[in-house]
Automatic annotation (TrEMBL):
Cofactor: FMN
Domain Flavin reductase like intervals: 76-232
InterPro entries named among the record's database cross-references: Flavin_Rdtase-like_dom (IPR002563), Split_barrel_FMN-bd (IPR012349)
Family listed: Belongs to the flavoredoxin family.
Alphabetized UniProt keyword annotations: Flavoprotein, FMN
Protein name: Flavin reductase like domain-containing protein
Gene Ontology molecular function: any one: FMN binding
Key word Flavoprotein present: yes
Keyword Chloroplast on entry: no
């Protein structure tokens, strides 16, 4: 019997270990603490193991010819993605809540974020609502309300308010009509900045709408901030989107300073010289 698409993606819950609520992001050393400029990955055991995978060869996909698997392939490979939990309101006053993982920061100056909405098989309520000028909020989802947020992705008709099934709490915004999510430790009150309707170069169909949002106010819970006033990843517990119906939590983290030319140029010159000689 053919399974419906939602059944097909289901992971048998019985075979999974329970969610570990005590797991916390911790900082570890970097993958190769003795790396120097130009050093190849074959120089470590884990690097050699990684390269062994290449023995199976490469699959090359021409995206004009082989379109059927692009969606599952791309969403499974371009990971992890942050998730915008968007609260908006229609012109007639219907409130709406939905999740969008084609989401990221564009710039801090001015503070802009973007998210992208697929228009097939239907134009979604969120891109329609955010264009109405009433403003909207983008909230970040933390582990304790993953199920609540996921429920709002239901393909309900426009007159349905997803807040009613979410179990989440509305807090009035100070600048925009749409409320923010109280359970979210980081929320942005946004104004519509720009929409780019993406026209397919072959079919001419407007398949997708990219929304640019101007962040006017940020609400951040003080308990997730560190002494430098930035978000402490060990307390924030954000979830990310992976392929198909998978989500991820943030596991171990490591810190690597961005190299500064003035400090590193001696080492770089030396490394290049060594490479030439070998
Ligand atoms: C975690 C997650 C991420 C999603 N990301 C996107 C996305 O980036 N773009 C999109 O068009 N739909 C995305 N969806 C599907 C929408 O949430 C879904 O179509 C929703 O019903 C849209 O609601 P609306 O019509 O009220 O705007 C995602 C769903 C989930 C569960």
């Amino acid at each position: 019997m053919a399974l419906s698409s939602s059944r097909r993606y289901q992971t048998p819950a019985m075979s999974l270990p329970p969610f570990n609520h005590d797991a916390r992001t911790k900082f570890t050393e970097t993958p190769n603490t003795s790396w120097t400029f130009g050093q190849k990955i074959e120089s470590t055991e884990s690097g050699r193991k990684w390269l062994e995978g290449e023995e199976q060869g490469w699959k090359v996909i021409n995206t004009d010819e082989d379109t059927s698997r692009l969606y599952p392939l791309m969403i499974s490979a371009i990971v992890p993605r942050p998730i915008a939990f968007v609260s908006s309101v229609s012109e007639s006053g219907v409130e709406n809540l939905a999740t969008f993982s084609w989401f990221n920061m564009v710039t801090h100056n001015p503070p802009l974020v973007s998210f992208s909405c697929s228009n097939t098989p239907r134009v979604k309520d969120t891109p329609t609502n955010v264009r109405n000028g009433l403003g909207f909020t983008i909230n970040i989802i933390s582990e304790p309300f993953a199920e609540n947020a996921n429920a709002t992705s239901i393909d309900a008709p426009p007159e349905f308010d997803e807040w009613t099934i979410s179990g989440l709490t509305k807090v009035p915004s100070i600048h925009v009509k749409a409320p923010r999510v109280k359970e979210s430790a980081f929320s942005m009150e946004c104004e519509f900045f720009q929409a780019i309707d993406v026209t397919h170069p072959v079919s001419g169909e407007i398949t997708t709408t990219l929304i640019l949002a101007r962040v006017k106010y940020i609400h951040v819970r003080k308990d997730v901030l560190n002494e430098r006033g930035v978000v402490d990843i060990t307390k924030y517990k954000p979830i990310a989107r992976l392929g198909d119906i998978s989500y991820a939590r943030i596991g171990d983290a490591f810190r690597l300073p961005r190299p500064v030319w003035e400090q590193e140029k001696g080492k770089i010159e030396q490394a290049l010289e060594n490479n030439e000689q070998s």
